[in-house]
Amino acid sequence: MPPDLIAEVLVQGVLTGLVYGLMALGLSVIFGVVRVVNFAHGEFTVLAMYAAWFLFSRLGLDPLIAAAPIALAFFVLGYGLQRGLIAPFVRRPEHLQFIYMVGMAIVLVNALLLVFGPDARHADVPYAFDSWRLGPILVDKVRVFAAAGAILICAALFAFFRYTLVGTAIRACADNLIGAEVVGLDVGRLFAIAFGIGLACAGAAGALMVVLSDATPNLAPSFTLLAFTIVIVGGLGSMTGALAGGVLIGVAEALASIVFSPSLKSMVSFALLVVVLALRPQGLIGRRA
Amino acid sequence: MNGAGRSFISREKAVALALLGALLVAAPLVLDRYFLSVFILVFWSAYVGQAWNVMMGFAGLLSLGHALYVGVAAYIAAALYVHFGLSPLIGLIPAAAACMGFGAAIGWLGFRFRIEGVYFALLTIAFAEATRIAFDNSDWTGGAGGLFISVSSATAGQWWNLRGGPLLFYYLALAMAAAAFLFCALLMRSPLGYRWLAVREDPEAARALGVDVLRVRLASVIVSAAMTSLAGVFYAFYYNNVFTGQIFDISRSIEIILAPIIGGVGTLFGPILGAFVLIPLGQLLLWGTQALGLDAPGLEALLYGLCLMIIVTRAPEGVWPRLERLLRGKDEAP
Predict the structure, then answer these.
(1) Is B2 a residue whose pLDDT tops 70?
(2) Taking 50 as the threshold, does the pLDDT of residue A282 lie above it?
(3) Residue B313 reports pLDDT greater than 70
(4) Contact state of B298 with A98 under an 8 Å Cβ cutoff
């Protein structure tokens, strides 16, 4: 195999992996703070893909710009969902959370199917086929833009959790819930904000994703699995872990599709998952629970 | 545990069960083909629910990848029959052995490193998905194109090859559901059953009392996998085909765990009741949307998802414990 092909695929894998990482980051925040397993995460991401596609085809709004309003809308959606529907499930056993979120996932996917039909939707931005030449390799513009968007949003989130009062309070909930309640934090509100942030990540990632691949309703369950794989490989509860896991899975899948065959690419990420669970269950950058 | 029940179920429940059993044995006299198929689905779902409950309900281990055992067993039994003409009654043995091997591998990988809760559940999903992809790329099992079991007049009525009409499958499924119920009732009151209970409630305390937690947990995965493998063989020969996309899919795993969760996790009647609630619910939604002329793709599944959310919100501990309290009524009053 020519080395420049491998380099090209590697770069592609890293860029796509950053967008995956942003999606997984949302899942990680929700699980780390609210301790609810969001089994509808991929469904929300695909919902955002449709939203971005709709804005693009009706209003001509570039999905990379639309990512901002979509993330905002998803934050509000997440805040409302946590306050209204999910809060009662926070202290219930995992299998009930699972069925509840799966019920929500089924509703979302089938609502998309009802409204938009099973056909694949794609946002054909004017620069879809442009690329830059970097020495011997070609890099797609869309991938660079999408990855840059993902990095920007992640940086903003890191700053939020590090430097703002609300962000610190949310981290306190994740570290020690009882302690947070004892010092008088409004845990219900912080949970809602965390869930909102989680969905905002899914929303932004979905909007960025629509320039990289087609949107179909049946993409959703595989996105959910992908997000989980990334979060576990990276380390549950670790924000850098989610990003690193995204990049690792992105690269592994991209390499697998040229070394083996495209149909085997998710096999590689599951193999990676099994290896990580067997050797380092806390993930690459995770703390022991 | 109150000392009252020496036998594993109360007299009233036994009578009610015997009546239900007799009714179901006689039911094919009046049921048409459609209702037979619905009942077969109900029994199948009650059976697998019971098998899943051995892990979740008895030992407290959440498996979200039971489609793995259904799929592996279905493929092995079907492939042995298609390639070598081996009867599924014999093919069942390697199928069950393979599933027990998979179960043991997942369990060992998980419990040795104390991968618990959500992590363990995700490990089971990962195994199911990875196996699906592996079968997709294997020629012996027909790849993504699936494996077909031929239906011809030459083999018709060969019950030992599980070739026959809906009546054969009706009674087989009924017998499986009944046997699983009895087996689980016995398991629950066996020394192993009490160890499962101890490990489920508090693994550390159980360990302190000298229970080998790893072994006890492995036992539950292996028993559950072996039971589920039977359902897989049944599936292959009832539908006469196996497709990776259908049988290994995550939606199959979800379907399997719905009945026992809706019915009541850890109870003997939960999986049965759950199956009797959910399968007809699905059929009703299908009818309803069609009768109203609303047969848009996705609508009936959307309503089904809504029903799930409503049921888990309203009856988080399951329908059976509620019903049981309702039936007991006043005599339980303090």
Answers:
(1) no
(2) yes
(3) yes
(4) no
**Closest alpha carbon to B267 in B5, B61, B52:** B52
What SS3 state is found at B17? helix
| Closest C-alpha among B40, B37, B38, B48 to residue B254 | B48
First to last CA, chain A: 42
pTM for the whole structure: 0.87
Q: Provide the ipTM.
A: 0.85
Interface test with B, best of A99, A218, A232 (most B CBs within 10 A): A99
* Chain B CA closest to residue A271: B130
The 10s digit of each residue's pLDDT in A187-222 is 999 999 999 999 999 999 999 999 998 999 888 988
Distance CA B104, CA B224 (A): 11
Interface membership of B106 toward A (CB under 8 Å)? no
Q: At what angle do helices B67-84 and B88-112 cross, to 10 degrees?
A: 150
List the end-to-end C-alpha distance of chain B, in Å, as a whole number: 18
Mean pLDDT of B174-185: 94
Q: Which residues pair with A210 in a beta bridge?
A: none
Angle between helix A63-81 and helix A141-163 axes, rounded to 10 deg: 40
Task: Name which of A37-46, A97-106, A271-280 the model is least confident about.
Answer: A271-280
Judge contact between A241 and A285, C-beta under 8 A. yes
| Segment (H or E) for B179 | helix B166-188
Please say if the pLDDT value at position B102 is more than 70: yes
More confident residue, B116 or A141: A141
Cβ(A190)–Cβ(A170) below 8 Å: yes
Nearest CA in chain A to B112: A278
Residue of A nearest to B250 (CA): A221
Distance CA B113, CA A281 (A): 7
DSSP code of residue B160: G
B257 touches chain A (CB under 8 A): yes
What the block records as the tokens of B140 is 């012996």
Tell if the CB–CB gap between A110 and B117 is shorter than 8 Å.
no
The pLDDT tens digits for A9-56 are 899 999 999 999 999 999 999 988 998 889 999 999 999 999 999 999
Calpha distance A77→B315 (Å, rounded): 26
CA dist., res. A238 & res. A154, Å (int):
13
- Give the C-alpha distances (Å, rounded to integers) separating A8 from A3, A24, A112, A265, B308: 9, 24, 35, 17, 46
Which run of H or of E encompasses B23? helix B11-26
